[in-house]
């Protein structure tokens, strides 16, 4: 349940609210249902924590939802081979070349025939929303996946005016300055990992790992018109992560102090343990994000 990647979104409409009295009913109407024989995929809300039946966690200003996606796996090579075989049989039998529309129809028939026998891939995406600050945190590594689950929530509650929470000042400019200068951002430790990308097309990408970033070797790359587009950081000795130029926080790791804070709660109390952990996760991520944003936007 501890998130590994987080994309932050913020509410951009001051009158937006979530009706805590109706959201459970709204979510239940968009529950996940398994794929049928001819379904390519299904997407819907599932149990908010593994091991419980409830689909909504809402306590004071914290909302947690979890979506489940099931996709049928059909390799393109398998489909193409099957289509080629059927097309070849018909063309030989009828002594003519099939038109594109006929080939497309055969492909549709092949898909319908193969779908019931296809393997399923299942994935989960969690939304952690701090309703007081208006921050929505999506536990995933791509904006496409985040937008999919936010669209599901938008459909569920009728409206969701959120946008990516990205500083106005270019993140890569700030990260580059942090590495190049003697300045140390308050409460933030620069770790020994970064990616530098040239501003010139085809100018190259440099990836550094387990390397002191304050060396002349790295600074020379910056002087040669490369920007720091990814940087490993540690916030308050509590959370480590890699911050990217697009505003994504990846490879998040919480300190042992945090991850073990609720270990006194019995493991068989799934609801109590997960609730306490998500309260902790949300408060730490919100505090980290606010501090990081403040420092990224400062001159």
Automatic annotation (TrEMBL):
Location(s), subcellular: Cytoplasm, Nucleoid
Main location: cytoplasm
GO terms (BP aspect): DNA recombination; regulation of DNA recombination
Source organism superkingdom: Bacteria
Keyword Cytoplasm: yes
Keyword annotations of the record: Cytoplasm, DNA recombination, Plasmid
GO molecular-function term, one example from the UniProt record: double-stranded DNA binding
Cellular component, GO annotation: bacterial nucleoid
Family: Belongs to the RdgC family.
NCBIfam families for this protein: PRK00321.1-3, PRK00321.1-5
PANTHER family: RECOMBINATION-ASSOCIATED PROTEIN RDGC
Protein name: Recombination-associated protein RdgC
